Amino acid sequence: MTEPTAGGHPTKYWHRLDDGRVQCDVCPRFCKMHEGQRGLCFVRGVAGGEVVLTTYGRSSGFCVDPIEKKPLNHFLPGTPVLSFGTAGCNLTCKFCQNWDISKSREFDKLQAHATPEAIADAAVKTGCRSVAVTYNDPVIFLEYAIDVAEACHARDIKMVAVTAGYITPEPRAELFRHMDAANVDLKGFTEGFYKNLCSGSLAPVLDTLKYLKQETDVWFEITTLLIPGENDGEAEIEELTAWVMDNLGPDVPLHFSAFHPDWKMTDKPNTPMETVVRARKIALKNGIRYAYTGNVHDPEGDATYCPNCAAVVVGRDWYELGTWAVETGGNYTGNCAACGTVLPGVFDGAPGDWGRKRMQLKLSPQTS
Asked: How are beta strands 112-113 and 80-84 bridged, if at all?
């Protein structure tokens, strides 16, 4: 446990233990804390005998990104998404690509303040079709993420969670009840990888993926960051893609992204392009219909193909859309323009034209 809290926003997923400590029940870490202590995530701590969220209404900053950067390739393609995170994380990934946010311990000086209503208003004003809780994991700022989602839905703005899926069943159900889409980081496919590099466990993440598929209508995609010598072996990719086929089916998109040295893994080389290309080919061979490469320049691996006639239905160059051969109908459906095959995902009329732009925003803490 870490330094004392100074109070915060009330939460409900916790209980008191017989020894006087309080246990947080949001994630499988189950941090047990005395008064004034914080959990490993650093943002949930005990004040007044209860677990509180210390970062409610406070953000690392706001940016308008392409939705494909989350990455989501089958959710309102080409549209801008208002993205924000807070501080802390409930995993300790040595390869964290956002470590300056997720590992921060001096965030009080850096955070922007904004109410959920101010975030929803900003999304409307900037033409965003969705808001994403991202950069660090929304699991640890669950209450803020849910309130933002409710404010966004009141303005007809959709809500996206970018998450590692390391969460317990009851808060998981509440979080995803308020989400329209998600990208889940499946960081590796062995318990050893999760234990040694993330101080976590694979099993709860697989449970989250099965829950999303079997018990929700949330559109979700999966990302695996391939790290040389750690989780990029052919046998592991074979096993991962076979599990996805058996448990989630062929239509859940998989993104294989290239690693670059960061945080506590600066001794590792960049992932070669051929590694992510090979992983994509393994996924396709094993029946996954939509497999993508990421963090490399690979228009072939960025494109979406019709699984029936093999036509390119959405062409991409980085985050720029090129070919668009999707016929859209009601209820956010899409079909291949060449053969009519249904395309899984969320489509709505013509594609957006946001491209690869990234725009930083400053929000007023009050609603407009």
From this structure: unpaired
Question: Rounded to whole angstroms, how far apart are CA atoms 208 and 169?
Answer: 8
- Characterize 23-33 residue by residue with b for buried, 16 or more Cβ atoms within 10 angstroms of its Cβ, and e for exposed: bbbbbebebeb
Helix (H, G, I), strand (E, B) or coil at 71: coil
- What total number of domains does the chain contain? 2
180 domain residue, yes or no = yes
What CA–CA distance (Å, rounded) separates 277 from 53? 41
Q: For residue 229, which of 255, 192, 254, 282 has the smallest C-alpha distance?
A: 192
Domain that includes residue 35, residue range: 9-53
pLDDT per residue as tens digits for the range 341-360: 999 999 998 999 999 999 99
Q: Are residues 145 and 22 in the same domain?
A: no
Taking the alpha carbons of 310, 279, 182, 168 in that order, is the dihedral positive or negative?
Answer: positive
Exposed, middle or buried, 269 (CB in 10 Å: 0-12/13-18/19+)? Answer: exposed
DSSP for 237-274, please give it: HHHHHHHHHHHT-TTS-EEEEE----TT-TTSPPPPHH
Torsion on CA atoms 288, 165, 187, 181, rounded to nearest 10: 50
Q: How many residues can be counted in the chain?
A: 368
Task: For the beta carbon of residue 264, count every other beta carbon within 10 angstroms.
Answer: 14
| pLDDT one-digit tens code per residue, 243-301 | 999 999 999 999 999 998 876 678 889 999 999 999 999 999 999 999 999 999 999 99
Q: Do residues 20 and 169 share a domain?
A: no
Torsion over CA of 133, 232, 78 and 345, rounded to 10 degrees? -80
Total-model pTM:
0.94
**Statement to judge: residues 46 and 68 lie in one domain:** no
With beta carbons less than 8 A apart as the criterion, state whether 32 and 45 touch: no
Give the burial class of 19: count Cβ atoms within 10 A of its Cβ; 0-12 exposed, 13-18 middle, 19 or more buried: exposed
Q: Are residues 75 and 115 in the same domain?
A: yes
| Strands 320-324 and 359-361, bridge-based pairing | unpaired
